[in-house]
Structures are given as structure tokens and as C-alpha cells.
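not sure who needs this but someone in the group chat was asking about Helix-turn-helix domain-containing protein from Flavobacterium cupriresistens so here u go. i didnt clean anything up, its just raw.
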Amino acid sequence: MQVVPPKELSPYIKHYLFLERKGNDIQKLRLFSDGNTGIVFSLKSKLISGFDNYKTQSYLPTSFLYGQLNNFKDVYSGSEMSIVIVVFQPNGLHQLLGVDSGEFRDSIITVDAIFGQMGRDLEEKLTTLLTIPDRLQLLNHFFKTLEAKKPQTNQLIADASLAFIIKNKGQFSLKQLVAYTGYTERHIERKFTEGVGLNPKKFGNIIKLHHFLKLLKNKTENTSLTSISYETGFSDQSHLIKEFKKHTGMTPSEYLLNTGKLTNNFIETFPKNAL
């Protein structure tokens, strides 16, 4: 279930996700970038980050923040699953905390390392609440408290660059971005990476891929993959497939046929009981 935040939190939080699954079988889940960072609360059992000869190798923290991803990550759910995910806007974490988002790229960090005792308290309280409305109320209160004391940050360059890249669906050149913002390429890249966690070109590639996904899911029988490739700014179909597989670990056809989508970028990658 996906729920949007209240209006005052929408500049920082894109949406909340509430995912539930019953059963004790192992489920492999794949997360790939959608251009946003997030916080995961695993309320029933810890997610598993890897296996060694089908034996658990390591667990992820009960709650953790994940930074921007360069490609995809696989995790496993080994028992009944109850997950709450806070999906931030691309530069929402930087706005709320004033942190350099580039330092979190491809990282998983415990919630208490970011929020201290407030984070530990939030995790504990979420596990005691059984309904989505109650959990929403708690999360909104937590982030409204952070918003009220957030540091002052200069978001002009990052905000303008984000708006330009998203408006153009990831199809742009750095020269165009320089002309649009009036700042140098080096300054734009530094401020954008600080706010978003990726440089403008890498972020733009993710936006292009998700625009492609939207067109792919809505395509008619008469629409070819090649025509969608050109429309979304890829030079040819082979270039698109290469980029798509780099970010998702699968081909566009495999993604389209996958029935285990929890969200657009968080999916079950093979049937249950496969391990």
C-alpha cells in the first residue's frame, strides 16, 4: 500500500510504502534505484543480505537508511514480512538533515546512526502499532518534528537542476543545464551530488529508465521496443537493454513479465520456495 504524506512534508517525502506478506518460505527481493533514498523498517523479522551455501550469511539492521544506488541490490525475507518504507524526494534527506547525500551513496546505515535515540524510539513504537493509520500518524509526527528544526540549506541549484532534469525526462546535456541554471558545470555537479547523492547525468539516466518503464507498461501490441527506446532517448534497443540490465539485473521483457512487483523498483525476482 502506498500513501502520500501530508502537504507540509511533501517537499521531503515522496510517499510511504506498507508491505505485508505471510508465510515462512524464503523470498528473494530486488531493489533498484528510482532516484530516491529511503528508510526501511522491517517490523516482523530482519531482512537477510546474503546466503552462503543456503545458510544465512548476514542480516540487515531492523531499520536502516539506504542511499542512492548505482545498480541493484538483492535481499531476502525469510519469514512473515511486515515492512514500512519511507521514500524521500531525491533531495529530501539533504533538506531535512543538511547532510551530504553523496556520502550515503550505495550505503546502508542504521537509523540510530542518523537519528540517534529518536530513531531507536521510532523503530520501537512502530513495532507496537498494528494499523497503517496509527503508523502513519507516528511517522508524520516524527518527520514534522524534524522539519520544524531542519537546518537552513541552499537548495537553489539542486532544485532548479532537478526540475529541469525531471521535466525533460532525463534527456538533457550538461551544456543545457549550465545554460538553464547560469552556473558552471563543476558547481552544478558539486551542489547536485551533495543534495541528491548522484551527479546530474547518473540521476538523469535513472529518470530515463523509469520513463521507459512507464511507456513499456502502457505500450500497445503495435508499439515496438525500438520505438520506445528512441522516444526515451536511447540510441538503439541494444543500448537500452544494456543500461536496463545494469540497473535492474534483468531485461525489459523479464521485468514486464514479472508478477512479483511490490513497487516499481522493489520486486520478487523468482518464485517462492526456489531456495
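also DSSP finds eleven helices and twelve strands in the chain. if thats useful
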